[in-house]
Each structure stands twice: as C-alpha cells, then as structure tokens.
C-alpha cells in the first residue's frame, strides 16, 4: 500500500513591510521540504488578498471559511499542515494562529498565545523576569501620555534606545544621545506603534541566539555575534548587509554556557515551539534579553539557516521536523 503524501502549504507574506523578507524565507522552505514525503504548495497572505499559487503561478483565492482552495476542476484542496513563515503581522503576533485554531487547521511554530506575547516586548520581558532572565531598565509609554524628559534621563541615563513595543524589523528605533533629541525620537517610534519603550543603553556585545525544539529536545542552534557597522543593528543592517555576523560568537566557554542556558530557559518558560531567535546584549558576562522573535527571517542570508548549517542540521531536516510536529498536534 502506498502512503498518500501529506499536503503542506508554505504560508508567506504578511501585512507589514517585512513581507518582502517573508517571501524569500518561504521560497527557501518551499525549495527545501522533502518531495518524497510532502506535496508542497505556496500560499501568499497579503493585506488585499490571500491566494494559492497554482501551476504557472496562477492565483486561486483562499476560502477563509476553512482555509481551502477550489481548483479549476472544482476540486477542493485542503492542507494537512500550514508552514507559517510570515514575519510580523498577522503570522508572528497570534492573529493567524488564533484563526487557524478556530477552524481546526494544523500549523507549524508556536501557538497564538506565545506569538501574541512575544510580539509585545514589554510583556515578554516582564514575564521572563519572573524566571530570572535579566533585561535593560526601561520606561513604557502609551501614545498621548505626558513625556517628562528630565525624569526619563534621570532614571535611565544617556544614551537610551527608543523603540516601538510591538516587535518588527527594527523600524522606528532610535539611539538618543542628547536629552534634546528624546521627544523627536518618541514621535518616530509612535509612528510604528501606540506603545513605546525607552531602554537604558547596555554597552556590550549583541548576540542573536537561535533556539528550536528538534526531535523532542530544546536545542540552541547557535550564538551569532552581531557587529554593526552602523550605530546599532537597524533595518538597514538586518536586511542590507550593513553588519557583520560571526557564528559562533567570540565568547569564552563560561559565557557561552550561560547564554545557552538562559536562551533555553526563556524558550521553555514561555512554552515555545518551532523556530525562535532571541537577541541579547552581553555585559560583564551577563546576557540581557532585548526581545524574542518567533518567526525569524529564514531567507538564505538569515541568521537561523546559517546557524543550522554550522550546527549540522540540514534545512530539509529542520523544516521537515516542523511539519512533523504540526501534523502530530
């Protein structure tokens, strides 16, 4: 008896500026999944349209009632699993996951609660502080609140980072060195989100740590040192190569073990599943967490695939492991 292959949709795109990166990530996963095990399809979710890409890149609308597709011969195509590789909203903040839960569609990665929580930097760091994971000192502001620059500088010192609370591609982030620049920086951040964080400056090495659950165990794929050529690891540095990434990071064994331990603890404390990439600043050997991404970039140039390569897990196995977990949910 021939086992029928499982049907897998690689779901990419998104409603934010990051959709461009998501399409590249989706392409890598689409190319990498084992065709002996799965029938692999592409689904693109954009603000204006959700569509399935058929032969010759013909578009078919996705039926949002059950996430199915009606093909030319009136055949209904449903997916055994969706490989979620949308960066930003709606695939990284829980919206898509909650919808999939509601209609009974299986998908890769973490659940809606973990997605929503980790997309909110303030709430993530607040939860993780209960598990003994340190972060920078910060002040949280909502749009419309009075901003007392004297109090902020007195509390946090200078320089500070001003950033939108919802995590995305480092858009709207400023490094502020003078008190006089603070208000303008808050306005830039408020363009991206109604809530912002002002964080004390941590002077240390930035590292990006890939953590996944692979074959039933939480593993650290790699610790990558970020050496920005700009002031900090901003959008340009992330996506236009204005930073040097060194894997493994140039840190001593004791520090490496500490970073691995804290990264795993953060992942497990939050009940995470699937790909994740956490950013830390190492200061005096202590990792301070900045944020956790639950759907990090997965284009060939991205950090996570590079780490997997060095760790010795093929992209095919890495992606296949995600699909198998989704199918077994």
**Can you tell me the CATH superfamily of the largest domain?**
ATP-grasp fold, B domain
Which overall shape is indicated by the principal axes computed on the Cα atoms? globular
Secondary structure: helix percent: 25-40%
Which ranges are low-confidence, i.e. pLDDT below 50, for 5 or more consecutive residues?
none
Structure class: alpha+beta
Number of domains: 3
What is the CATH class of the largest domain? Alpha Beta
Could you describe the 3D structure shown?
This protein has 329 residues and is α+β, with helices and mostly antiparallel strands. Helices cover 31% and strands 29% of the residues. It folds into 3 domains: 103 residues, Rossmann fold (3-Layer(aba) Sandwich); 106 residues, 2-Layer Sandwich (D-amino Acid Aminotransferase, Chain A, domain 1); 63 residues, ATP-grasp fold, A domain (Dna Ligase, domain 1, 2-Layer Sandwich), CATH 3.30.1490.20. The protein is built from 10 helices and 16 strands. It has a 7-stranded mixed beta sheet, covered by helices on one side. The mean pLDDT is 93.
Topology:
Elements lengths: L5 E8 L5 H14 L5 E8 L4 E4 L5 E5 L4 E3 L5 E2 L3 E4 L10 H9 L8 H7 L2 H9 L8 E5 L6 H8 L3 E5 L9 E3 L5 H9 L4 E6 L4 E10 L2 E12 L6 H6 L2 E4 L6 H17 L6 E8 L2 E8 L9 H9 L3 H13 L2
Parallel strand pairs: 1-2, 1-7
Antiparallel strand pairs: 2-3, 3-4, 4-5, 5-6, 8-11, 9-10, 9-11, 12-13, 12-15, 13-14, 15-16
Helix pairs in contact: 2-3
């Amino acid at each position: 008896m021939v086992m029928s292959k499982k049907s897998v949709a690689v779901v990419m795109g998104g409603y934010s500026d990051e959709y461009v990166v998501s399409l590249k990530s989706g392409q890598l996963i689409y190319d990498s999944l084992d065709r002996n095990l799965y029938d692999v399809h592409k689904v693109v979710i954009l603000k204006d349209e959700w569509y399935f890409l058929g032969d010759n890149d013909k578009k078919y609308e996705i039926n949002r009632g059950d996430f199915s597709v009606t093909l030319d011969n009136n055949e209904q195509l449903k997916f055994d699993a969706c490989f979620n590789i949308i960066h930003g909203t709606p695939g990284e903040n829980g919206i898509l996951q909650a919808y999939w839960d509601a209609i009974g569609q299986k998908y890769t990665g973490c659940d809606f609660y973990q997605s929503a929580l980790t997309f909110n930097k303030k709430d993530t760091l607040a939860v993780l502080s209960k598990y003994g994971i340190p972060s920078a000192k910060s002040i949280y502001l909502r749009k419309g609140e009075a901003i007392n620059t004297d109090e902020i500088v007195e509390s946090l010192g200078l320089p500070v980072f001003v950033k939108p609370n919802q995590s995305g591609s480092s858009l709207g982030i400023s490094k502020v060195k003078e008190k006089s620049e603070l208000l303008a920086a808050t306005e830039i951040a408020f363009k991206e989100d109604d809530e912002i964080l002002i964080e004390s400056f941590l002077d240390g090495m930035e590292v990006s740590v890939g953590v996944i659950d692979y074959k039933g165990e939480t593993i650290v794929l790699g610790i990558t040192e970020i050496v920005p050529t700009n002031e900090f690891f901003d959008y340009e540095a992330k996506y236009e190569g204005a930073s040097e990434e060194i894997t493994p990071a140039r840190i001593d064994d004791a520090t490496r073990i500490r970073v691995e331990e804290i990264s795993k603890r953060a992942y497990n404390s939050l009940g995470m599943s699937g790909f994740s990439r956490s950013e830390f600043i190492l200061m005096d050997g202590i990792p301070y967490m900045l944020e956790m991404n639950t759907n990090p970039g997965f284009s060939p140039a991205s950090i996570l695939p590079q780490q997997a390569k060095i760790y010795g897990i093929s992209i095919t196995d890495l992606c296949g492991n995600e699909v198998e977990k989704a199918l077994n949910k």
